Structure formats: C-alpha cells, structure tokens
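User: I want to check something. If I give you two sequences, will you return the structure for each one separately, not as a complex?

Assistant: Yes, each is folded on its own. Here is the first sequence with its structure:
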Amino acid sequence: MDLFLDTPLSNAVFDLLRQLNDEIEGKLAETDQAGLVKVYIFGGCAVHMYTNARGSNDLDVEVEAAEILDVHSLVVELDTVYFTDPVEGDMHLDLDDTFQIGLTPVVFPDYKERAIPLNEGAQKLHIYLVSPSDIAISKLSRCATDDIKDIVEMYRKGRFTLDEFKEAAQEALDYTATPGSLQQNIDHVIITLENV
C-alpha cells in the first residue's frame, strides 16, 4: 500500500514522534528492549498519510506504554514542530495530549491488529498507522463535515470499498451506547459515498 510518508506534514509527524522517542530513550537508557512504547496514529494526520489531503495542527495518537514509564509526563515536554506546507504555508504541529481512543466508542477493540507498522527496529518507540477503515469508523461518532470529507477522500483514493465500509460500520453498532444516532450517521455517509 502506497502511503504519503514524505510530505511536509508527515515529516513533521515523524519529527514530533522522534522527540518522544528521544525522551523515552533518555528515561529508559538502562534497558535495550525495543517497542516499550507504541503509538497509533489517528485523526487528520492519518488521513493525510493515506491521501496527501487535509492538513492538521494536532497529532492524535493512542499511546500504549509499558507500566514502568509515565508517557504522559513526557508528552508535555515535546516542542512544537514548525513546517511549511506547499498549499497552506507556514504551519505547526503539536501532540494532542487530550486524545483518547476510549472517547471514540465506535473503534473496534482489535484495531491494533490491523494497524500498519511505520518503523521497526531497536528504538523504544514503535509507530503504527491505524487502518483506513478504522480511521473512517472512528469518524462516525462525531460525523462533522470534516469527518465526512475525510471518509470520502480515503474512499476516493481506494483505501476501502463501499462494501468494506458498510461491513465495518455495521460491526461498529456493537461497540456504541448510542446505536440510533450512529445508524443515522452511517446511513448519511453511505449515501454520500454512493454518490461519489
């Protein structure tokens, strides 16, 4: 699968996560265990990596860390990354330390199994890009105009089929406390995709 990993925004994402890795390496210098911390990229930055569309000023990641490390204390120490977007001009990227996947109740518990590894090796921070269908499903609970645009753009780029979306959306109904409103959002997005 071709990804857009060498764009100004994608490079800013990796710069920000490199800072996080450096902080982790410093705190855990005594161990050489790789992958003690895993981050899963969601939100606008994930959409960008799949489509080369949409900018974002915040990086939404779910952080999974070994119990020996308080990652949230490291996150506040990260510096803003500044970059120049060819369309938007001067921009900045910060890690959204308020993002929690638990606040997005329609994301399947097994999304980590489908995530795409973006780095492997000896570093303590391993980076994963959440699958396109899981990103699309994560946008259904809010389903604002930008969320729908993101879903449509990934669909246009062939990141998932309409049938794949319908199946994943149907499964999402099992993970929400508000199936009625989610069904309305699903129906709206399906009609939108059918007219693309």
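And separately, the second sequence with its own structure:
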Amino acid sequence: MPRFRETVRTLLRERLLDAAYEAVADRGFDKLRMSHLAGAVGVSRQTLYSEFPSKEAVGEALFQRELERCLVGIQAGLDAHRDDLRAAVEAAVGFTLTLAGRNPLIKAMLTSTGEDGLLSYLTTRSAAAFDTATAMADAYVTEAWPTVDPVARELAVDAAVRLTASHIVQAGSSPEESARRVADTVVRVALSTGTEKPPPASAHPA
C-alpha cells in the first residue's frame, strides 16, 4: 500500500508539472495561478498545496526537471565523443544551447519579469543548478580524462558551466558557433598546468 500511494503521488506530481509547463509556455510564469493549475488537473487546491506549497515551489520544480532532462542529453553528447575532449565539450554545449533556444520554459524564463519570475532560477537562484551541473561534469571528466591536471580540470569545468549559462541568458552567435568558442576556451584551460609563464613584455622604444 505505501508503494502504491507513493506511485500515485509521483504521477500526480508529474501531471501538475506537465500542466504548469503548458501554462507557463503559453502565458508565462507571471500569469500562472495556483487555482488554475489545480483546476487544469482536476484536484483541489488543498491537494495542490500539499504537493507544492507555493507558486515558487512549482517554478523550482519545473526548473529542476528541465535541468535533469538537459543533463541526460549532455551525458549523451559527452559519451558520443569520449575519445575527443574538444568534440565532447562542443557537442554537450551545442546540445544545451540548442535545447535552450527551442524550450518554451527557457523562453518563459528569459522573458519573465519581477523578482518572483523564472529568470531568477538562471541568475540569482542558480547556485543549486550550477552545483548539480558542475558536479556531474567534474565526475565525468575525472573518469573519462584522468590525465588532466586536477586544478586545470576544476577550472575548465567551472568555465564550461558558467560560459554555457551566460550564452543561454544572453545569446549572441549561433549555438554552433558559441559551442565552438566555449569548447576552445575549455580545452585550453583543461590542458594547462598552471605553471605556464606569460611571455616577457616587449621592450618599448625610448
């Protein structure tokens, strides 16, 4: 019986998140109302609040679910190029940026307004997402490329995560070009040892 109840609760949670996803994609997070969400799924507001105590909790759960789905795709991109660090980073970053450009929830995040908008999950509330993505990437690189200097690896992973997030929030060039540039930066950092010395300053004529 406990397992059955747990399964029912998981299904209900997914139905609520699916309905919230559609509502946010259609009208934006700012216009999401808990009463409308409960009505869309056919549950009472009490049932909804027992699962998600606030609108912000819904937003956090939506963001976390999309992050987990994104990490699965990143893993596939890395696995496809396990013998080539540059190609692996480029594939993973390219996948992320392409997904972000097509994902209605990400678009809603980038166009949301106010302190309670979804954009905060990519900016001021992004610590947990950064930690999750960084831990996953660091664990992968440690296993796949054990010869990379540990300090350089840590810096490279941090650069990959932060540069990718920056391109999501403020896209410039195409996902492919951005992925190439991020990969180039990450590989240069990863292959450094921290002992390189800058070239001597050129002499200036008197």
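Because they were folded independently, the notes below concern the second chain alone. The longest helix spans residues 2-27. The chain has a mean pLDDT of 83.
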